[in-house]
């Protein structure tokens, strides 16, 4: 298995807009989607795919992740971009997708919220939100 390529949020957004087969999969939890927000792909005529990598409250790995990815319409030949809060869970999810036969997987660096800033807050230094990319509350 080859290493999962890292890609910036801006490069991901460009790929989502220009490649009809590109899919963005947000692997955070339902609570994160509801309270923090999700990428808004409607300007590109798409919707983000929401599949948790870990299942609350145990936070165990979602044993049906690959099956759910397939059911969501991601093909083995699709370019699939994975995003989480800061880039760790999405990297693990991308590796699992790769192991399940997805040939073109990418990890979105710094995720949706990025690292904490000097005051301990996320969403201001790096990541999807801090890059000024479209997002919305669910």
From TrEMBL:
Residue stretches making up the Rhodanese domain: 18-124
Signal peptide boundaries: none
InterPro entries registered for this protein in UniProt: Rhodanese-like_dom, Rhodanese-like_dom_sf, STR4-like
PROSITE patterns (UniProt xref): RHODANESE_3
Pfam families given in the database record: Rhodanese (PF00581)
PANTHER family named in the record: RHODANESE-LIKE DOMAIN-CONTAINING PROTEIN 4, CHLOROPLASTIC (PTHR47377:SF1)
The name this protein goes by in its record: Rhodanese-like domain-containing protein
Organism whose genome encodes this protein: Rhodovarius crocodyli
